[in-house]
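My hope is that you will study the protein record below before we discuss the fold together.
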Amino acid sequence: MLFLAISLAVAQQPDPAVVAENIDTTGMSTAELATEVRRVHDEAQYITARRLAEDLLGRDPANLTGLYVMGRVQWLSEGNHARAMHYLSQANRIYLDEHDAAEERPWEVHSEIIFAMQNVAEETGDYGYQLELMDEYDARFDPPFGIAERGWAHMREGNLVAARRAALDGIESGDRWQQVLGHNTLCAIESEEGNREASLGACLAALEHRREYGSGSLAIAAGNASGAAWTALDFEQSETLAREGASGGGSVNAWRRLILLLVDEGRTSEAVEALRELRHAQGRQEPSMRDLNRADVDAAFARLLLVAGESTRGMTVIDRALTWPDRRGLISTDEDQARGGHALLRLALRRVAAERAAEAMSTRGLLSRLSHRLLALLPDMGRLGDEGAVRSALADTVRLEGTFRVYLDAGLNDTPSWLMGDLIDVLGVGVAASALEQARSAEPLSGMTPYYDGIDAEIALRRRDWRQASALAAQAGRDLPQVEVLYRARLAAVAAEATWQMGDREQALAHYERVMQLDPGTMRRMSFQLPATVQVRASDATARAVGKYLRRSRRVRLHKGGFSIMVEGGEGDLKTCLRSPLGSLLACAEAPMPVPEEDAMPMTDTEYARYVVERFHDRVFAMPLGLSNVDLNSLDGQTTVAGEAERARMEAILEGIE
């Protein structure tokens, strides 16, 4: 997704500082108080401005200055767009009813009211109303809005002809700000139309303009160019540009893009560090912008948790993203695209949660295992709801094709290549095959061929055409960019499963080994089993219990000559190790018995055996983050961003008092 270069308000107004000034209004006349309200507002002392404006409106509820300032404070300082529009609309109505016909009317404040209203309309995605307000402003005041300032609204209204004309007129003008808007709008238009290389060219032109003239936001221009490079499959340039946009704390969008890139490449530890920096950047955002991409950031966090197998925390995070969606006024994708993309991610997390529950059942008695299997046959209303949300979002044929073309803004938000196979299960093989055919015919970029072959391989797998699935998956895996680690792992898994079904055990085992080297979490996310034997090299009863549990694990398909799982160690200090068919060590899960907390009972032998098995599954079938629960909490924006913002707020207040 791409962002508008900068909202008109952010470009033309000072950053909303949060400073408090101790002002005694006792004895001030209403006119004097209005003057003081305007002064502190213009100095961006929004805490004081709100207090004084409330005092002013208490004396004169129809005061234009008081209503205007309250609207601006609600918008910029508190991020409450609905209340902001309420105050500004009330001020506009009062002006038209009581002042417009007067010989000496306060037209200056009226111009500011309409200007602020169109900014709020833009940020809340009410583009038709924004265009109406721009027309009203132009009819009354001079200078009028520039042509390029309407480009984004026209694009989001679906009028790409008018949007392109506005963008090109802005670029060709001699006005730097019009050029900024024109370049960035053209960047978004090309992306909207699925022109991968043209989008990259337009976005790079916007970035070069920013580098040359310093107009606009470098962070956002670099972040947009990073997204366009990703769409054009130039992953190295995409990472470089994302880091440029993120440098110095920069754009939240650039940090988010970098996280998505790192996760897809299997660089989870780097993704964690990028997420830490992103949370700091979120805390520094203005309140009016803080809910612009909060849900999309949560979705990026949930994707990282999915790859790490942290399904419980991941579900909490993606639930939050779906419950409190972003405002998308300055973002090139709409709410349905976001909802569908987030629902698809939640479906993947639901599957991992179900797989983990099935893994845990291997340590339970027969009755519990049977009961679990019977319950698993019942309809999962949460899963059905998410599938419905995805299908609803893809009822639009343009969006369906855009999703299957992979990485385009026209499709579901941020759907990675390695989750496209899950989409086949939601839509059905027939619909997926038809959408894929349309995507292929519309795609001019030759580098997309292995992506489409990979989707075709998964369709063939579901049709039980093992030979076709194996051939397509193997070829696509070889042709994909090397950085597509998670997708190459998924295609190796498809090739492994298809080859196994064909009876070619040796080739299948080679594919499975490739999966375990690239991304072992793929096995869990695809509900696949690893052909293996289990050997117990420890003599105590707990070790033997661990071996028994692992032989009936959801992740293990018992097969001699395949992988080997070793249970080793002594009493209270067991470990489980996975070796390849040729004996190479792939992973070990150390599991010393945890020291009980004060006044707590130590684990029983059965509890310890279950703990060892759980450690094996979580260590061997997921990409490790190397984090504790406390560390995961530090990455959760629900607490860290609020804390960061409150800390900045208090520091500013103290600075103002001093």
